[in-house]
Give the backbone structure.
Amino acid sequence: MELSLLPNDIQEAHRDFPASLAGCADLDALMRLKGAFVGRDGSHAARLMDLLKAAPKEQKRELGAAVNTLKQQWEEALKTRQGELEQARQRDAALAKAWDPDLPPPLPTRGALHPLNRLMERMVDVFRPLGYHVEEGPEAETEAHNFDGLNIPQDHPARGSADTFYFKGQDGLLLRTHTSPVQVRVLRRIGARGADGLSELERSGGIRFLAPGRVYRKDEIDPTHSPMFHQVEGMIVGKGIGMHHLKGTLAYAMKALFGPGADVRFRPSYFPFVEPGAEMDVRCPLCGGAGCRVCKSSGWVELLGAGLLHPNILAMAGIDPAVWSGFAFGMGVERTAMMVSQTPDLRLFFENDQRFLKTMGGLD
Ligand code: FA5
């Protein structure tokens, strides 16, 4: 279409028309635009009709075609936009009708600590009255703390890359496989002698602490195993500490966690950093001990490893095992959570299904 035949201001208005149309946010604005372009009096279309009437005969045909095309374009585009705006108005009206100002506003969902973190806090609370405080260690650990300082022999299978995640190209750095390396860090600290020739252990007369945290192993995933899980390490060093202290402490903790009727058993086991070593099981609450998938038909679920500190690990930290003794334990948090809440599969704790997490109030 030959626009150059038209007055400049109309050419300009036509160029801006699509933007003006899109800028109409409601029907009133659209009606004003419609009046300016195709209204009866003074609109661009009305002025073009006057122009056409006054045009010399030989121009009428060409100008007439241009004016008609333009008018048609404007009218169609205005109609389409009008349809859109009417639909939006109907939608808004329906929404306004559905809104009941008397209803209380929706409450925002409140965030909360994960049930496993809450259980770890509860475990710490169980031990605080006994004088335990919390110690921490890094998750990216050295072989020296994770294995060597714990009397774990060089050829022990747990050291293999089939069981442990090692950092590539960083000699001796790994993801800790248990919380026991915190024992080594604390023992070295309390065994080191200060300027006065005394160690922190000698000055304080003893230490008792918990070390909760994440650990990693290349374990196959199943209802009771995950490659990332949590442990709570516990340790006490003092004079004359024996197996009876360990049993008494754990019996107290199990009653606090599982209730006075807690049915647990203690059985001998082996860990290179304790002597003697033991494990504690809880009667499977999911089948009452009759045997199921979770307890692998044994009626019992293993919760923790424990024992009296091996003289070697005390000696390696500069602590005289003839004077000092102690016990340690490492408890699986997911296993404990499963048993406390009777959850048949620990994977549920990692799937972050809000409906499941909300049912876990009992872990506080
Ligand atoms: C240890 O990790 C020792 N460090 C525990 C220890 C500490 C012994 C202090 C002596 C003195 P173990 O590998 O058995 O032991 O693991 C301890 C607990 O962690 C198990 O009883 C179990 O409850 C939990 N556990 C072990 N592997 C997994 C896994 N893959 N997924 C979830 N929980 C696990």
Remarks:
- Residues 178, 180, 217, 219, 225-226, 229, 231, 271, 274, 302-307, 328-330, 332, 334-335 surround adenosine-5'-[phenylalaninyl-phosphate] (CB under 6 Å).
- Residues 3-98 form one domain.
- The CA atoms of residues 135 and 211 lie 5 Å apart.
